[in-house]
Design brief:
mainly alpha; Arc Repressor Mutant, subunit A; 2 domains
C-alpha cells in the first residue's frame, strides 16, 4: 500500500527493487518502534505494581524533577533553530539520523554534528542556570 501511495516518488533511472526494499525496510522500522513504545507502556506490569506499592516519590523530589524538566525545556527553547530542530526530532519524535537528514536536506554526518553542538549548548545553558 505504501509503495502504491508513493509511486510518484519512484525514480525510473534507479533499480525498482532498491526502491521497494527501502519502503519495506522503513515500514519494518516503524513497526518495531511502535512495538517498543507499546511494550514500554504495557508489558512491565510487575514493575508498575512495585512502584505503586512502594508509594510515590516525596513532594520535594517531585518538585525538583519538575523544575529540572522546566529548566531543560527553557534551555531547548533558547537554542537556535538549526540546533533545536534536529534535537527535537531525534529525542522527542524518535527520528533516526537518516530521517532527520532527509527532512532537513542535509547529510547524515551534519545531523550528528548539529546534535553534538546542541547538546553542548544545552549543557552550558543548564550549568549557567544552576548558578545564582
Amino acid at each position: 500500500m505504501r509503495a502504491y501511495r508513493h509511486f510518484d516518488r519512484y525514480d525510473s533511472t534507479q533499480p525498482f527493487w532498491q526502491w521497494i526494499a527501502t519502503i519495506a525496510n522503513r515500514y519494518c522500522i516503524d513497526v518495531l518502534r511502535k512495538r517498543s513504545r507499546t511494550g514500554a507502556l504495557f508489558d512491565d506490569e510487575q514493575f508498575e505494581f512495585d512502584q505503586v506499592s512502594s508509594g510515590s516519590p516525596s513532594p520535594p523530589l517531585q518538585l525538583a524533577s519538575e523544575q529540572d524538566a522546566d529548566a531543560l525545556t527553557q534551555a531547548i527553547r533558547g537554542l537556535p533553530d538549526k540546533y533545536r530542530v534536529p534535537l527535537v526530532l531525534a529525542y522527542f519524535h524518535d527520528a533516526s539520523y537518516d530521517e532527520i537528514a532527509r527532512d532537513l536536506e542535509i547529510s547524515r554526518n551534519h545531523v550528528g554534528v548539529l546534535l553534538l553542538r546542541a547538546k553542548q549548548q544545552l549543557r552550558v545553558a543548564l550549568e549557567k542556570g544552576d548558578q545564582p
